[in-house]
Design a protein that fits this description.
Length: 233
């Protein structure tokens, strides 16, 4: 990676306005709902990008203001979203982010057909996927350098994993054409979060993640919106 991603997910939570409502599920399926348990585990690894305290405070204020919403109020950022990355990328690329939230606001996400839907006036494409969660062993970990993954489960529950950097290593070199790199990782150090229709996830280059992991619910069928936003250096 071009940057050293040396910031713990614990600090990501500190800058999130939703930390008090968050819920973490570990790989055993046990729910850890107490903040003290979450903080203790998240302090033990590196999961996302590093930023200074002043910028953290500035980003937190921006997130609380809702300046990013562009009229969209049906869901909020999940507590794992790196607020500084979101803040900086929004400022560097406002047209795409505004168009994204405007599309979410004006689209019936339940009725729209599955498939790819260009977002008018931009190069963005919204992928509407009717899919199913699978066993963790069959799901790949990944990260991207050129694109940001905006992911939103609008129906059902999708479990995401976020892997710890220092205990992970690339399986193969970065694939520039596909903009992806996959990792071998320590399952015991991975963090798992359930995505529901009231929260969306954003995975920046420093967020090495696993999507569509089987969770504890009876129904593993999901409808997911995936939009890849340009990452600006």
């Amino acid at each position: 990676m071009k940057k050293n991603f040396l910031f713990t997910l614990f600090l990501g939570i500190c800058m999130s306005i939703h930390a008090q409502n968050c819920k973490m599920n570990n790989h055993t399926g046990k729910d850890e709902t107490k903040p003290c348990c979450m903080i203790k585990k998240m302090q033990n690894g590196i999961y996302t990008a590093q930023h200074n305290a002043k910028l953290l405070k500035e980003a937190e204020t921006w997130m609380k203001s809702g300046a990013w919403r562009n009229g969209y109020f049906r869901a909020d950022p999940h507590m794992s979203v790196n607020a500084v990355e979101f803040y900086q990328q929004y400022k560097k690329n406002p047209d795409q982010w505004k168009a994204l939230f405007n599309w979410l606001k004006n689209t019936n996400l339940y009725a729209i057909s599955k498939g790819k839907h260009p977002i008018e006036g931009t190069s963005l494409v919204a992928s509407v996927e009717d899919s199913e969660n699978g066993a963790l062993e069959k799901r790949q970990s990944e990260s991207h350098r050129k694109r940001i993954d905006f992911q939103f489960a609008v129906k059902g529950t999708e479990r995401f994993g976020i892997i710890e950097h220092q205990s992970s290593s690339p399986i193969k070199p970065y694939d520039e054409k596909k903009d992806v790199i996959h990792y071998k990782y320590d399952k015991e150090k991975a963090l798992f979060f359930d995505s529901t229709p009231d929260k969306f996830f954003i995975f920046f280059p420093g967020d090495w993640h696993i999507a569509k992991v089987m969770n504890d619910t009876q129904d593993q069928n999901i409808r997911v919106i995936v939009i890849k936003v340009d990452y600006k250096e």
